[in-house]
Specification:
This protein has 126 residues and is of the alpha+beta class. The chain has a single domain, classed as Beta Barrel (OB fold (Dihydrolipoamide Acetyltransferase, E2P)), CATH 2.40.50. The chain has four helices and nine strands, in the order E-E-E-H-E-E-E-E-E-H-H-E-H. The strands form two sheets. A six-stranded antiparallel sheet has the order 1-2-3-9-8-5. Strands 4-6-7 form a three-stranded antiparallel sheet, with no helix packed on it. Strand 1 and strand 2 form a beta hairpin. The radius of gyration is 13 Å and the shape is globular. The model has no long low-confidence stretch (mean pLDDT 96). The glycine cleavage system is composed of four proteins: P, T, L and H. This is Glycine cleavage system H protein. The glycine cleavage system catalyzes the degradation of glycine. The H protein shuttles the methylamine group of glycine from the P protein to the T protein. Its cofactor is (R)-lipoate. Keywords: Lipoyl.
Amino acid sequence: MSIPSDRKYTSSHEWVKADGDVLLVGITDSAQDQLGDLVFVGDVNPGTALSAGDMAGVVESVKAASDIYAPVDGEIVEFNEALNDNPDLINQAAFDTWIFKIKPNNSADVDGLLDADGYQAQVDAS
């Protein structure tokens, strides 16, 4: 599995990629592989202020449901509406499909997240 080095990662399997003054957030290929075929992505509420680690939404598959967490303190500004009708976009291309955008309170908080090598080491250890 190839882990893109152009973003940061959380230990709870979210990826984070800067897009101007907001961050795109999705789940990793490893996470979608463990979940299996996704049937629902949602419960993401734009306008909600979250702290790092707070539940930001949920992904459900035929096997399980899993919470998605805010990677940093900030406000959710957008949900990827394409996932309403096509949650399997994440199964097809996890690293190309963002779930929500968050405007961080402090963009430097991203620096505290895992880099690709750190995330790979975590996946290998589990």
